[in-house]
Design a protein that fits this description.
This is Regulator. The chain is 25% helix and 39% strand. The protein is of the alpha+beta class and 100 residues long. It has one domain. Strands 1, 2, 3, 4 and 5 form a five-stranded antiparallel beta sheet that branches. The longest helix has 14 residues. It is globular, with a radius of gyration of 15 Å. The N and C termini lie far apart (40 Å).
């Protein structure tokens, strides 16, 4: 196994991280905001945002405010993000929620 970054290859996937707030619906009314981080691979930012919104809707969120988008260039050291990063590289959309 090489110590090189997976991004040293010319056609490596781009892993986006999107930060924001999402709301579920409770009794017909939006529930309080839930902080979310979403990691996924996509060809561009627009595709990443669309996939993130679809993933949130699939998990029962009815509204979302996506505040920031960035690119991860290496495996995160935090175990929560390591798993999500690996899932993103496997083609999944990883949604991390921060609930009170």
């Amino acid at each position: 196994m090489s110590n090189e970054s997976i991004f040293d290859e010319g056609d490596a996937p781009v892993v986006y991280i999107i930060l924001g707030q999402a709301r579920e619906e409770a009794d017909g009314e939006p529930a309080p905001d839930v902080a979310v981080n979403i990691l996924l691979c996509a060809p561009d930012e627009d595709s990443a945002v669309r996939a993130a919104l679809e993933a949130l809707a699939g998990q029962g969120f009815v509204e979302a405010d996506l505040d920031r988008i960035g690119v991860l260039t290496e495996m995160p050291e935090d175990p929560t993000f390591e798993s999500a990063y690996s899932d993103a590289l496997d083609g999944e959309v990883a949604v991390i929620t921060y609930r009170d």
